[in-house]
Amino acid sequence: MNVQNGDLSLDLLMKKYQDVAAFLPDELSYLVEAFAPSQPEPSRSKAYIVLSAFCQGTRSQNPQESGSNSSATEILGNVFQHLIISRISNHQEQDAIVVGLSFFSAVFHVDWQSASRVFAQDGVVEYVTDALDLFPSSVSVALEVARMIGQASGHKACRALIPEEIVTWLGNKSRQATDKNLRAAAAIALVKLSRGAATDASEGADASQAAPSTSKDMELASLLKGMVINDKDSPSSLNDVVEGLAYLSVDPDVKHALANDPKFLQQLFILVPRRKPLPTSTSNSSLLFGILLIISNLCAYRPRLSQEDAQVAKLKRMAKAGNGSSKTTSEEPLNALEDDATVRSRCRQALASGALDVLSVASGVESQGIRLALGKIYLSIVEDKDNRGKVLQGGGARSLSRVIQSSSCSTPSSTPIDTALLPAIQALAKLTITSSPLQVFGPTDGAMLDAIRPLSQLLLHSSSNLLQQFEGLMALTNLASQSTGCADRIFNTPHLLNKVELLMLEDHTLIRRAATELICNLVGGSEKAFSRYGGSPDVHATKSKLQVLLAMSDMDDLPTRLAASGALATVTSASTACQAVFQLQLDRHRAFSIIARLIDPSVTLEDDDPDDSQAAGNPGLVHRGVVCLRHILDPQYALPRKSLAEEVEKAGLVNVMARLLKGELGPFDTAVTTLAAEVLKHLIELRKLANS
Length: 692
Fold this sequence. Notes:
By secondary structure, the protein is mostly helical. The chain has 38 helices and no strands. The chain has helices at residues 3-14, 25-33, 41-61, 72-88, 94-110, 112-119, 124-134, 139-152, 156-159, 164-175, 180-203, 213-230, 235-248, 252-259, 262-270, 282-299, 307-322, 340-352, 355-362, 368-382, 385-393, 396-408, 422-434, 437-441, 445-460, 466-480, 484-492, 496-503, 509-525, 527-535, 539-552, 558-571, 575-588, 591-599, 619-632, 641-651, 653-662, 670-691. The longest helix has 24 residues, at 180-203. GO terms for molecular function: Hsp90 protein binding.
């Protein structure tokens, strides 16, 4: 087939992909021939696109209906069945068998349901074994059989149909040294059979059959590992080798073996070119994705289940036991190779062997699957704080930003981002928490401003968990302190402030603290946030906000009190906020006492529990309390002096300030005592007014 004419014909087929009936038999045969191994890779890649479009078009035109036997899978199966069987049953022509098997593998790639249907037809497996018997010395037939069986082995319904003689044949071919491509293809087929058998056994009533697969997996892993080290000059076989290792590396023993072989890791990572862009061919993308999966498996921590998730898992175990499973309802013992310390060690070994260079190259590849894999890998790596500096030095923040922006740029700002992006955003949040935003994003505000929308999704997304919300709050808090532009952008993010204010009332101490700290930084950095909490003329709206800040200023958690009282000290520089605090004092006679307790921990409120221990004083709280009183008592704010004098006397503020200046509450620097003296002066003036 002439390459130029072939591409032109494939382009014509592409135009009518949605209508199965529009394809003539000769055109379908032409598509099959385009998958011949002798065809150049660009033509085969285009043939994959045509085949994929054909299957998708057929499925969109024939949606599955309840009770209907005429499903898209049946339609496609009937079309492909003739095209495949007519070739693999042609025992007179070796080339026809090779093309048929190659097309069969392609169908498994694109539409495994219809391919599985064809595989299950009477005589299909026998045709495959007959081809091996008729052409025992044909490397091309053997290679395509191994590849097709490898594809079929990934699906449970097909695994049950693969005879033992095929498995034995695959074992023999995986050990031969004559043809590296055949050896790799046979090995990946065995890997899929082994992993599939273990999965099938774990889903069934008898899990004991899963145990022997570990030794088989270790043998196969050792074989494939040796091929990576020794067959580096055979790129066509390495795709299969890497795919096989990606499957096997979910096993803890295999992970341990791979991670503790630096020669293997270095050779694996060298397969990805560092100094030039990765060619965007299908085989290169597959190779890169396979390497990323291996890194992901090596670095993955075991899931941290919430109480609800743990309860659901327990119920599932109980259900299995009730259905006759040999497993008990007790929790399965944790494999020591999966504990956090071992995973941290594997992450460090991967980094030492050059994994960050691979991640940096991968971030520039236009592939959704690769981007999502990157997010998970980076999240696992930065879980260890000791790795975060290395990730920043290796351009990890840029890579994560590139992944996030490229995946979310097409999404309107009002639309939630894809749930699959949350790991990448969480990884970026961890870097932003432990390092200066300048180190993470660079000296200009542009990258920081771009990061605010995705980071806010850690709070707003319906799928985010408490840890993601906490880390999103902490990251935004760091950014809010960086510049007024960042603080304003955070304030203006739709729905974000309402969510943060709700989280201030969360039962979880760390969430409540982080939300309060973010509000404190926003009030200090954004004029709009300042107005929301005290700078606007609407005293009634301000009261509800300040009531929350006052309540947070009286919590047991010291960092929460520091953040809330800091925000309070800032906003009370506005007369509206002072009026609102005074109104709250008149309503419940608590506001001044709460501020006084910031200065003197011995101050009590009516509803205090007598058994509660007295909190120790804190210089930061004292300073904030004094500043609040300095603002509230400032004569220029024109609060009603007589009522103010009465409330000040009820709260015992004169005694509190006198104790502070006498040194009874501890030593303080001049900045505090100077303000305290000014406050005491105003208090004495108010007392004189009350007594006059």
